[in-house]
Design a protein that fits this description.
The complex is a heterodimer. Chain A has one domain (2-23, 32-281): ABC transporter involved in vitamin B12 uptake, BtuC, CATH 1.10.3470.10. Chain A is 75% helix and 0% strand. Chain A has 13 helices and no strands. Chain A has helices at 2-23, 34-69, 82-95, 106-126, 133-157, 160-171, 179-198, 200-206, 210-215, 220-242, 248-260, 268-288, 297-315. Chain A is globular and about 65 Å long. The termini of chain B are far apart. In chain B, β11 and β12 (243-248) form a beta hairpin. Chain B has helices at 37-45, 67-73, 89-95, 104-117, 133-146, 163-178, 223-231, 249-262; strands spanning 3-10, 14-21, 26-30, 52-57, 60-61, 74-77, 151-155, 182-186, 203-208, 211-217, 235-240, 243-248. By secondary structure, chain B is α/β, with parallel strands linked by helices. The interface between A and B is medium-sized, with 27 and 31 residues.
């Protein structure tokens, strides 16, 4: 029953957000033409809404899974260097003015390639037979720092326009794109969800630590590879398309644990669903919060996330 | 169907020529701090793989079994077992049914039945973070039963418990032994082993500096001298209501002096 209650609450907020996204400001704009109204709803707002749902659910799902896998409340989708790799890739595309291919921009392609490179480096550590989970975490930190250092170096040779575009990209913004981009994102996101949710029971057992999980029959090496690969694929695609959107992967699992109970923090379905709603709500605020201007959604998630995290820490009850 | 450790070598930690654990037996591995008790248990359970030697279960090398096959033979409870976050007691027990590849609800249903069988039904529905350390330890012990493995291995199961819960924990283990589970328990306090019952069948293995020092029944008359040598502390036999028990000499000496004064 408790589980149904979670979903009911999240569904209610989701419906509210969708309703707000699709209809807000339409009446203000006084759009009398039905075709224009339909174009705005079905061709502009709905694809963006779908992107928000896909990316929000992916970031939260991966964040929640990584927090359990690493048994670390600070773990995020960026922990294993995916975001840093993507950022470096995007910066390379902007600095050297690379051309896109297959109708996809160079920034998106290079960011995705950067994410995959960073991930494969971490996976090379994860596949060694006796690698401990803390060592994978350290490898992720090392790759993040190395990619950050190279990015800083690139700043010295980049032109001002490229630097400005890179800074804008790094804020994280949901793009105004068509259904072709939604379908492009759908593949990695669905694979990511399948990989992570299929390992749900193994992951729950991993909340006990790798050795304990192995002793009850979990093939920990295979599970962590699947989780890292699936997670990084989803996050790489999301970051490549929208830039790094802060706090969704870190905050949403904590919000779920705080408001829906500690047990819900192990329920990947609830976390994924909550992430979708959180990013959609943030994007609604980003689009319609300030009249006449749109704020990057990454700025909204960070502005909401940082104080929310602070409040969560202060509210946390002392352990018995 | 025995568990046999042969020519085990973990450099700097343990070196064991042969140790045989029979099905349905109960073995308490004792020794001073840092003697290699936990290392031995980790190798026997397959958590660690020795650099040399083999652990055989059912005549197959443990290192060659898949995690699920290994879990069918051996259930292991480490000294400290903290969970990230919290879950209900029945979900915690259900984790140990992983090898059965059943749905979470089936696993939890079976876990509730098991908890009720072991008089822990009152904890069903409560979060693992909300129950006391003693209750949690009993739940964790029962979770080993949920795994339905042949050998249950426990590393210092009563280490962080108060005396009442220590007694409770060992009595629970005694009942599991009576029901036919093979137990291998690591403990630095061998006095607790007497709570397991059946002293003539209870095996005590002494380990010092990573090597097996002795293996004998709890009822063996040589046990106290072997323990005294192992710990470098005076262990003495005591007669409690006609049954053999052991205690540290200091306690018995003070009791003896008090008795002498009374006389």
């Amino acid at each position: 029953m408790r589980r149904f209650a979670y979903y009911f609450v999240i569904c209610f907020i989701l419906v509210l957000c969708i309703f707000a996204q699709l209809t807000l400001r339409l009446s203000v704009d006084d759009l009398s033409q039905a075709t224009l109204r339909e174009f705005i709803i079905w061709e502009l707002r709905l694809p963006r809404l779908l992107i928000a749902l896909l990316i929000g659910s992916t970031l939260a799902l991966v964040g929640g899974s990584f927090q359990i896998l690493f048994r670390n409340p600070l773990a995020t989708p960026s922990t294993v260097g995916t975001t840093a790799g993507a950022t470096l890739g995007a910066l390379i595309a902007l600095t050297f003015g690379l051309d896109g291919a297959l109708g996809i921009s160079a920034v998106t392609l290079c960011a995705f390639a950067g994410a995959l490179c960073a991930t494969s480096l971490v996976l090379s550590v994860a596949t060694t037979s006796r690698a401990r989970i803390e060592e994978i975490l350290l490898a992720g930190i090392a790759i993040t720092l190395a990619a950050g250092a190279v990015s800083q170096g690139l700043h010295l040779v980049a032109e001002q326009n490229a630097l400005f575009a890179a800074a804008q990209w790094s804020l994280g913004q949901l793009p105004q794109v068509g259904y072709d981009r939604v379908s492009l994102l759908l593949g990695p996101v669905v694979l990511c969800h399948l990989a992570l949710i299929s390992q749900r029971r193994s992951l729950m057992t991993l909340s006990w630590g790798e050795e304990r999980a192995a002793s009850v029959g979990v093939n920990t090496r295979r599970v962590r590879l699947l989780l890292l690969l699936g997670g990084c694929l989803g996050v790489g695609a999301a970051v490549a398309l929208c830039g790094p959107i802060a706090f969704v992967g870190l905050l949403v699992p904590h919000l779920v644990r705080q408001f829906l109970g500690e047990q819900a923090g192990l329920d990947l379905g609830v976390i994924s669903f909550s992430g979708a709603v959180f990013l959609l709500a943030s994007d609604t605020l980003a689009q319609f919060g300030l009249p006449g201007t749109e704020v990057p959604v990454g700025v909204v998630t960070a502005s909401l996330g940082a104080p929310a995290l602070f409040v969560l820490i202060l509210r946390k009850r002392p352990r018995a | 169907m025995s568990l046999i450790a042969r020519n085990i070598n973990l450099p700097g930690r343990i070196r064991v020529d042969e140790l045989r654990i029979e099905p349905g037996s109960c073995t308490v591995v004792c020794g001073p701090n840092g003697s290699g008790k936990s290392s031995l248990l980790r190798v026997l359970s397959g958590v660690d793989v020795a650099q040399a030697g083999q652990v055989l279960v059912d005549e197959k090398a443990l290192s060659l079994l898949t995690p699920v096959e290994r879990a069918a033979h051996i259930a292991w409870l480490p000294q400290s077992s903290t969970i990230y976050g919290a879950c209900t007691v029945e979900a915690l027990v259900a984790f140990c049914r992983f090898r059965f590849f059943e749905s979470q609800s089936t696993a939890e249903h079976e876990s509730v039945k098991l908890l009720q069988e072991h008089a822990l039904g009152h904890l069903v529905g409560r979060l693992s973070s909300e129950i006391s350390g003693g209750e949690l330890q009993r739940v964790l012990m029962i979770s080993l039963v949920a795994q339905q493995a042949q050998f249950l291995m426990l590393d210092e199961p009563a280490n962080h418990l108060d005396p009442k819960h220590q007694i409770n924990a060992y009595q629970t283990l005694g009942k599991l032994w009576q029901k036919g589970h093979a137990l291998i328990i690591v403990s630095h306090d061998v006095r607790l082993a007497q709570l397991l019952g059946q002293p003539e069948k209870l095996q005590i293995v002494g380990i010092k500096n990573g090597r097996l020092n002795f293996q004998m029944a709890f009822s063996s008359p040589e046990l106290t001298s072997a323990l005294s040598e192992l710990y470098d502390a005076p262990f003495v036999p005591r007669d409690v209501a006609g049954a053999l028990a052991i205690d540290l000499g200091a306690v018995t000496t003070s009791e003896a002096s008090r008795l002498a004064e009374n006389k």
